[in-house]
Design goal:
Tetratricopeptide repeat protein; elongated; TPR repeat; Serine Threonine Protein Phosphatase 5, Tetratricopeptide repeat; TPR-like_helical_dom_sf; 2 domains; 13 helices; 224 residues
């Protein structure tokens, strides 16, 4: 996945110098290039990350799995920089068997970020069918279905994700959210979500308030 924890400035500079040393010592080893692109991306130094990935791709373009790994890294630079149209072609070029599903997942996330939910769903389901036992793949399908307003289907995939990872506050929260919309019991799911992932729960509380208002308005309309 593209998300990486952001190192502090001192740590990042030390690691950058270390990886530059590795590249100088072994210029034919693509791993150090890849790791440096990932590090620069995590530090949100997108211009340098892009330039290095492009340079490395020029060097290793005809070598596999190096070329696909570097394409994936460059796609992730663009994804993190929120330039999704630039990211997509790099993910689409990946043919490496080990990376293909990761690339499909990033394509789905990029398309979702562009609000192109129908195409995002195609790629997300492709990944979910290849990795039915991966909670993240089920969560992504569920998130896209929720965005499309398919609450019952979304709920089914959130339930699958929770069955695979019972520590997922995100899955528990969204089971509660879809249950609320579908008129099913939901309170225990929100309690569980709050215990499992307080940060996620707080970040999405506004979503709850909005849905409560929407449901109240619908109830008022039915009574009038």
């Amino acid at each position: 996945m593209a998300k990486a924890s952001r190192p502090d400035k001192a740590e990042q500079q030390a690691l950058v110098h270390q990886l530059i040393g590795e590249i100088d010592a072994q210029p034919e080893d693509y791993h150090a290039y890849y790791e440096l692109v990932v590090l620069l991306t995590a530090g949100q130094d997108f211009e340098q990350a892009e330039a290095l990935a492009m340079k490395a791709l020029g060097k290793f373009d005809q070598q596999q799995p190096a070329a696909d790994l570097l394409r994936y890294a460059l796609g992730n630079v663009y994804y993190q920089a929120q330039t999704y149209d630039k990211a997509l072609p790099y993910y689409q070029q990946i043919t490496d068997h080990k990376l293909k599903n990761d690339a499909y997942m990033m394509m789905a996330q990029s398309l979702m970020a562009k609000h192109d939910y129908q195409h995002a769903l195609v790629w997300a389901i492709t990944v979910q069918e290849a990795r039915p036992d991966q909670a993240d793949a089920n969560l992504l399908v569920a998130d896209i279905l929720l965005a499309l307003g398919n609450n019952q289907q979304a709920s089914d995939y959130y339930q699958r994700a929770y069955a695979l990872d019972s520590h997922s506050g995100r899955a528990a929260f969204n089971i509660g959210l879809t249950a609320m919309v579908l008129g099913q019991p939901y309170a225990t799911w929100f309690e569980r979500a709050k215990k499992l992932d307080r940060t996620y729960f707080k970040a999405h509380q506004q979503q709850l308030t909005d849905i409560e208002k929407m449901l109240a308005a619908q109830a008022d309309n039915q009574h009038n």
